[in-house]
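Hi there,

I know you've been waiting on this one. I reran it after we fixed the sequence typo, so this is the corrected version. Both the input and the resulting structure follow.
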Amino acid sequence: MVRLSLLAVVIAAAVAASIAVSAGAATHPKLVGVVGKNDAYSISLTSNGKSVKTLKAGTYSLVIHDDSAIHNYELDGPHGKSWTFTSVPFIGTKTITINLTPGKYKAYCVAHESEMFQHFTVR
């Protein structure tokens, strides 16, 4: 009987921890990055379906859709900060939690940077 009670407590704690983790992840605003849809030379970063021009500083859930083996998705930020989210020839989706600090940012495809980029500012 004691073992069953202990097992019930452990299960309840595990469920509560799982719910807390899920709830914490859901609280971050979502950004969506898309590169190379149908192998097009295009890259975008959106929030609520609108192209990102400015954002508030903070933590975001960033979902990257890399739809082409000839492109990748990278981000440069202030003070030399940079992230490589996907690489050539990766195709797929990645979700990253990222903290954006105030400054100027550039999302781009490193292989085609001169034509595939988007600038935005974090305030």
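Quick highlight: Residues 86 and 114 are 18 Å apart (CA to CA).

Best,
R. S.
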